[in-house]
Structure of DNA helicase RecQ:
Amino acid sequence: MMDHAHRVLEQYFGFSSFRFGQEPLIEHALNKKNALGIMPTGGGKSLCYQIPGLLLDGTAVIISPLISLMKDQVDSLNSHGITATYINSSLSYEQQSERMFDIQKGRYQFVYVAPERFDSEGFIRSLRRTRLSLIAFDEAHCISQWGHDFRPSYRSVVGQIQKLGELPVVMGLTATATEEVTRDIQRLLSIEDQHVVNTGFSRDNLHFQIVKGKEKHDFIQDYIRTRPKESGIIYAATRKDIDRLHQWLSREGVKVAKYHAGLSEHERKKAQNQFIQDEVTVMVATNAFGMGIDKSNVRYVIHYAMPMNIESYYQEAGRAGRDGEQSDCILLFSARDIHLQKFLIEQSLMEDEKKTEEYQKLQQMVNYCHTDKCLQEYMLTYFKDPFEHEPCEKCSNCQHTGVIKDITREAQIILSCVKRMNQRYGSGLVAKVLKGSKSQKVRETHFHTLSTYGLLSNLREKDITQMIQFLVAEGYLAVEDGKFPLLKLTQESLTVLKGERAVQMIIETAPTTHRETDVNEDLFEKLRMLRKQLAEEHKIPPYVVFSDATLKEFCLVKPQNKADMLQVKGVGEKKFEQYGVIFLEALQEETHQYS
């Protein structure tokens, strides 16, 4: 069966070999073993159910939490000559009935459905009459109550599919799953430990950056100006910020769309289509946008404000570079972001226990923004990534342009002050005491009488706070979880206070964004325009024709015949039949022009 799988991979999808982790997942499915795949965004999760769906008898049902993802996936499969459809609320009753009739007749190899479909007994009855090859849960972390994006409607599907009687093989796929979430998914989908495939969370093509102390609008303006034709997403925390950013970028002449829950469904759908079809280059959005968006050529993701937790950040940032090309993930940090996220947690309807958990996750996110360690390594450690990793040598910490300063003396003063304040106060008041503030709070508590009062008066209060947060991020201080986190000493604190360990911190780090220069930009742009024209003719997203990675390889190797072109990653027999000749003509014309 795996020999067949390799042939299907090459014939339909144009790849000569599987990516790491794909083969064992496919093999589990072909052997009728329920399986879970934990793979980073862009790791090729879709192929893990698409290839078994093509090889096993019957129709594969893919449960997806987003309508937009369904259409993208169906367009992509149809472009490969594979029969696929979707059932969701965007269809009329007549369209749904017609498609359900065709499904029962076995006319589709793949059917994408929203989780809410399983609330319908009529839908369950129709599936009972259908020969099913496989059921796949895309974005499987949504079924776990411990996941950062838990959806009760998605979890209820687990019970509903039991009504189908004898189940086909079941597969779960996700890009973000902590150990707790993984165990929960295993329990819900009856997946044994040996059938869990975790390829790790590392994304080697992503360049993670944290930008502090720079005016956010200035940074965005400078950044976008240097890459006007590249697709990017800017995430902000509130609708107000989205509207303001959208208005400003529009005035600056940027082709930009916006997406948030305050817009009508029609407005959101229009914005999404404009972005997917490359009609606009920038999408400004809240976290309501993006999960399951299959746009492969997003070259950068900028977070205008710090997200609430690392799970959300890694998933949102991971929407850059799905095609494997080098891409930037930039977080514009300011201290105000922390207060905003605390406010959002406090105003939520979560139980107190859940709020405490969210405060803990927020603290980890704050630590990420203040660590001097490799940023990718920090996140991989958080996710308990199963593989050994060296520093990435690409993030803003690995490639810092600032200076490394010995802050051992300042650290000892800070730790000593926390101890003298009986470890019962947060960073804000500690910074005021060290600065020598004459505020009412300092005088009321008599902290102006402490021996550490004013010992760092030569620094700005903001800089002292940043040092405190750095000490927390590096484990020299701990915070007691809650709305008002209190600073506590740790075992590491003692080694610093005793002078047994030096503390060093990077000062004034500047971002080091990545730019590629090895591709003929004029030819690449010519091929992009040709791709866009074909996409409009076939009413599909441009990246479904060929990915940016494939176009760049065309630019580098300039294939001159069918055999050459089939050697390019992403070009299979089916794709060549549809689009190959047109691109060959363009490449031949380019070659003759310079020969």
Q: What stands out?
A: The two ends are 47 Å apart (CA to CA). The chain has four domains: 2-198, 206-382, 403-507, 521-593. The longest strand covers residues 206-212.
